[in-house]
Amino acid sequence: MKKILLLLTALSFLSISGIQAKEIQALFYHASFFSPAEGPYLETYLKVFGPSAEYVKTPRGTYQASLEITLVFKKDNKITDFRKYNLLSSEIADTAKGMPHFIDQQRIPLPYGIYQLEFTMKDNNSKESPIEESKVLALEYDNKSLKFSDFQFIESFKQTQVENILSKSGFDLVPFVGDFYAADDQNLSFYIELYNLDKKLGEQQDFLFRYYLESFETNISLGEFSRFQRQKTGTVNPILATIPITNLSSGNYNLVVEARDRNNELISFNKIFFQRSNPGMQIDLKDIQSVDITSTFAEKITSLDSLRFYLLSLVPIATSLETQFARNATSTDEIPNLQKFLYNFWKVRNDKEPEAEWNKYKAQVMAIEATYKTKIKHGFETDMGRVWLKYGTPNQVEESKHEPSAAPYAIWHYWHIDSGNQNNKRFVFSNPHMVGTEYFLIHSDARGEIYNANWQIEIHNRNSSQNNYSNSWGDRASELFKR
Fold it and tell me: Could you give the domains of the chain?
């Protein structure tokens, strides 16, 4: 039986596993672009982790892996393009000395429209079932509309000598497949195109590309990681750029590219999510100590317990680095530093009225405390409290406490989430032990949250196993989730 996984974002981690079998692992990503002469096209990028594939001996005495890749594009339920090919790894002399990762890139022209992409990957040297992914694509480019292409993260680039599948705008672009940058990644390089700006501003007019990093949680831009590039308007304006990220701390971020006119007015923008792991980066206490809190709301808070409570209550909306500082601060008694951090936290978010911003959030914290506090947790430490503070009041709440075969559960539906510009996201909470009032988050389709394809099994685990679950008598979970 084939294993089917739904591709929720452009980037997906693929995995095929079986009992006592090697697990094949890969990353799959796609990006769409537009050629004024030839129309829209899609590029797919696949990175296969070498050690996860099955290598077999070749007639030449070397070892090689082989994957069968299938790409099917459907429009209005009709197949418009079909690709099937074998992806071969490089040949190696000895598998004991390591198996390098290998990358595949395809470029597929597709007319204007909405498509269903069906991706299948099978290890030709394994008996394991193939993996399948499905994704809706929108290639809505033309010769008139102002529009950005998708982003392409870049591993490396060089000037093109001979045109090839990696070539765009005079450069050969080796794709960086993934949205995770580890501590040893020193640079973030990217490529993106803007179309038909000359139709809006006129031909050969001055404009500015501004590109920068912002916090995913707060959408606050990081000045140290901001750059710009001046260009003249054209039918296609590409930008290939690099941002050093050596000093970028661990956390969730957006890469943002803006087009601005000569008056610095925003014309259009695009952004993409990525993650960074950089454990060595920490908040510089000298920066905190230099904050002036004279005659501010923070100076008036002199209770150590209150300051610790307030700092920890910021965790649901804080960046990773701010969270690290707030948690560490609970073990200190340096009241001035805690006051300065609290003030600076809100000063960064609202330079003109930090106290008003803090008072609004504090009111929410106290309301959450009254609603979700348990004997051992503050309200903001519970999953429901954290989600409420981070994303706001859900637009729709569905609860089920008396289904015959299910633990009590609740489904929160957000029509729009500002963080990451996400729409139609849901959070599933469960009280698995049916003791107390605390519900735990077991599944969400929001970016950065726990994703559990078997959340219904977890709700019904009293009477079901992972192998035999089906809609039980009285089960309303699927219906409520889709509302």
Answer: 1-140 (2.60.40.10), 143-281 (2.60.40.2550), 285-387 (no CATH), 394-482 (no CATH)
